[in-house]
Structure formats: C-alpha cells, structure tokens
Amino acid sequence: MYGTDWLGAPVLSEPLKIRLLRAPAEPTMTATFLDDGVYWFTATLMGIAGWLCLPLVAVHGVKVGPAALAIVLLTGVLVFMLRRKPALFALVRRLGNRAPRWLVRTAIIEKSLRNYRLERPTVVNRMFWIDVTCQLLVAAEVVVVLRSLHLPVHFLAVLAIDGITRGFKLVTGWVPARLGSDEGGAISAFAVTGLAPALGLALALTRRVRDLLWALIGLGWLVWKSRREPARGNTLEHTPGTLLREGA
C-alpha cells in the first residue's frame, strides 16, 4: 500500500486494507492508520535530512527561500504527528452541529491513534525502527541507480536527491498517481546536485516499476486467496462432524 504515497494514500488504501483484513473496523482502522503515521513520520525525518544537505551539494547554488520553506513545512508535519492532544477535536467543537460527519469520524480516529501511541509505546517504538529500515532501503535505491548509471555516489548527494523527491511527493500528493510529478522531482533533484537531469528519469522509473511490481504481487496474492477460501469452505461442509450434526 505504500505505493500510494503521501496525501492520497489514506483515501484509497485505508478502506481497502480494512476490507482485506476482514477484522473489526475500529481496531483495524487504528492499526492501519498508525502504521501509515509511523511510516510517514520516518519518511518526513529523511526528507528534512535531505533538504538540510541540499546547500552543501548544490552545484549552481540553491535559493534559500524554497529550501527553508520545505524544511518548515516538513517540520510542521512532524510537530503535528508528535502532538499528544488531538488537534481535530478543537475544530469539531468550534463547528458544533455544523461539523460534517466525516470530520467527526476523523477526529475520533485521530484520538484513538494518539491514545494508542501513549498506551503502547513499545509497539510504536518497534514500528518506528522497522520503518527507519524501510526508509534506508528507499534511499538505497538512489545509490543503486547512481551506480548502475556509473555516476559518482556521495552520501550527502544521495540524501539531497532523496529529500527533494520526497518533498515533491508531499506537494503533489493530490495528483492522480502523481503522474509526471515523480519524474519532475527526480529530474530537478539530479539537476540541483550537478548530475544530468535526464538521468533522473531512471530513478523515477525504477520506483515506478517497484511500485507496479508490488501491486502485481499483491493482486496475485488476492486472487490466489480468493480462490482458496471457497474451496476451504466446501471442505468444511463435508467434514464428519458436520455430517453427523446434519443427521447423515
């Protein structure tokens, strides 16, 4: 589900994940949204690190304004995630009876997420380090692409490229499938760090292929599982215990 990155992800992926898990809605919603929240918390940390590295590796100089704005926005996301008290309940109270049902529902989910984080710190801490590992693997994609293109690999440049692409994902999360935005972000990242801009397409296409591969694997698993479940149900219907209960 992480292929549907940033802002568009909850709208599309969360209802589907809840349906596929076939578990009670309330705890499932809390678990899936918490999973996404911890994942994007670590992603935002990596994004801030990348933008902080940008002035050190920018070949033609970098405008302070856009870089500072990106860092402030990402930091604001972190501050919102780290809040102990729910933020949406204040808005619901202010709107009163005029508050739409979807906003009230979202406020309830936010409260359950923040309470879960405080009640189960060990679980959240484990999720955090797992997601940190995931973020390092995502950044390693930049290293693999650079080496495949026989380009120089510098640690700060890798962080900067990864941070710029993450920033573009955040800004263009409303674009369906982020068509063109990922490619534009990768091209811009390569250009700023002194690499051939056209080669940035290799990074964007690599990540596109990875997302499509995981989607195909997931769809294959879903088809396989949906075919096995009816067969399992037919087998249970003809067990000896069932036949005895039916008076056979």
Explain what this protein looks like in three dimensions.
- The chain is mainly alpha-helical and 248 residues long.
- It has one domain (6-245).
- Helix content is 78%, strand content 0%.
- It has helices spanning 9-21, 25-57, 64-82, 88-95, 101-119, 121-148, 155-171, 181-192, 200-237, 240-245.
- Helix 2 packs antiparallel against helix 3 (64-82), helix 2 (25-57) crosses helix 6 (121-148) and helix 2 crosses helix 7.
- The radius of gyration is 22 Å and the shape is globular.
- The chain starts with 8 loop residues before the first helix and ends with a helix.
- Mean pLDDT is 76; it is low at 1-9 and 233-248.
The helix content is over 70%
Q: List the domain count as a whole number.
A: 1
Beta percentage is under 5%
Please report the total strand number as a whole number: 0
Q: Structural class, from secondary structure content?
A: mainly alpha
Report on the biggest sheet. Answer: none
How would you concisely characterize the structure shown here?
The protein is mostly helical and 248 residues long.
